[in-house]
Amino acid sequence: MTTANWALQKALYQVLSTDTVLAPLVGNRIFDDAPVSDPPTMHPFLVIGEGSLRDWSTSTEDGAEHIIDIRVYSRSGGRSETKLILEAVDTALRGAAPNITGHVLINLTMQRQEVRMASDGETHLGLIRFRVVTEPE
Predict the structure, then answer these.
(1) Distance CA 19, CA 17 (A)
(2) What is the pLDDT of residues 7-33, one digit of tens each?
(3) 48, 56, 102, 115: which is deepest, by most CB within 10 A?
(4) Contact 133, 65 (CB under 8 A)
């Protein structure tokens, strides 16, 4: 079974990078990994990051369950910017039908959100976790 892991990440990036509500909040600052150089002008930004994959096949169909974490990094004066961005990500992905090359989206649900202060004392970190189930075409 070929998994949708990379195709799913590309599809999520496409949805997020073209969303008209999210664009004014993060611009084109959507990454695969947090930038090595982290100047204040880089904030806020998103990272489509950690995830896991497990077999979700049945006796008749192949399938995969993906757990995808999207992180928000913000240095605004409070948590409000981080929460607004998390809300925009959630809305964009819930209302989308990502084009996952070679696969079909069966289910996409938000599992959790959290906001906390990073150890640097300056950066608010937001996390939104999605569960995505896919099947090959």
Answers:
(1) 6
(2) 999 999 999 999 999 999 999 999 988
(3) 48
(4) yes
